[in-house]
Amino acid sequence: MTTAGTTPLRIGLLGTGPWARNTQAPALAAHPGVEPSGVWGRRAEAADALAAAHGTRAYTGDEGIDALLETSDAVAFALPPDVQAPLAVRAAEAGCHILMDKPVATTVEAARAVADAAERAGVASVVFCTLRFAPETSAWIAEQAAVDGWFTARAQWLGSLYAEGSTSEYADSPWRREKGGLWDVGPHALSVLIPVLGDVEHLTAARGPSDTTHLILRHTSGASSTVTLGLSAPPGAAGVEIEFRGERGTASIPGWDGAETAFRGAVDALAEAVRTGVPHACDARFGLRLTELLVAAETQARTD
């Protein structure tokens, strides 16, 4: 296992879908601190194509997972959460650091298994919540976390993925269609609110139109926040807004330069955790906490 800060990390990629093609694979191939060690996919032709596009080796099948883990210091995931979780456990047990997509899993048990496996194996873990790693937003979050006196916050993340006329390739994802905006974009919103306002100690959830979910949160700091999440808004209603209000006024999240740049930041965070042995704040244990909150919200919204 590579631990030296000057030695490139050999990182393998598990997954070949749109997210892997558009974000993870190009980010890993262009990162100066990474040596891509291969691409694994459930479909051999997709793995072959993505590996060839980035000058690395393709793997498939169950034996291909073991082969990729053997030649990697770390693995990145671009898979549905409930496919990702058991493979992340397997990777950790093989001694590989893990860079996971959000959510880690859609059950608390599966997410806890990942966090426990990473801790037992002593491997570093990072969960790719985009706003925690994009340079513009990560700096802004740290700035707000250093300020006291926040009174309340509002987060709204509405996409039009399932709006009439949408042609997004991400709309073909079965898990995303089943779980909706709560699970797809909820981790992003929570990953901003929690480091600034503290953990969530009370949660209320209610359904809105289509897959929209509304949350009211009380945080350990004493502040409250409201969250609106969905993937089926009309295009004219779509957008992302996050703001904090407190003693010093209002702070609104800045724009950011896309997912690929943010993913390179996540790779840097993983490499730093490997080098120092200090867990990143957005690690598998934090991913477990996100899953706990999302399960609680989903359960409550279903009975609303």
Structural topology:
Elements (H helix, E strand, L loop, with lengths): L8 E6 L3 H13 L3 E8 L2 H10 L4 E3 H10 L3 E4 L3 H13 L3 E5 L6 H14 L3 E4 L6 H11 L4 E9 L15 H11 L1 H12 L2 E8 L5 E7 L4 E7 L8 E8 L2 E4 L5 H19 L7 H19 L2
Parallel strand pairs: 1-2, 1-4, 2-3, 4-5, 5-6, 7-10
Antiparallel strand pairs: 7-11, 8-9, 9-10, 11-12
Helix pairs in contact: 1-9, 4-5, 5-10, 6-8
List keywords for this structure.
six-stranded parallel beta sheet; alpha/beta; 12 strands; six-stranded mixed beta sheet
Question: Can you walk through the features of this model?
Answer:
The protein is an alpha/beta fold and 304 residues long. 43% of the residues lie in helices and 24% in strands. It is built from ten helices and twelve strands. It has a six-stranded parallel beta sheet, sandwiched between helices. A six-stranded mixed beta sheet has the order 8-9-10-7-11-12. A hairpin with a 5-residue loop joins strand 8 (200-207) and strand 9. The mean pLDDT is 96.
Give average pLDDT, whole number. 96
Q: Could you give the distance between the termini?
A: 49 Å
Instruction: Tally the beta strands.
Output: 12
Give the helix tally.
Answer: 10
Indicate the low-confidence ranges by residue numbers: none
The largest β sheet comes out as: 6 strands, parallel
Radius of gyration: 19 Å
Shape: globular
**Content of β-strand:** 15-25%
Strand order of the largest sheet: 3-2-1-4-5-6
Structural class: alpha/beta
The ordered H/E elements are EHEHEHEHEHEHEHHEEEEEHH
- The share of residues in helices is 40-55%
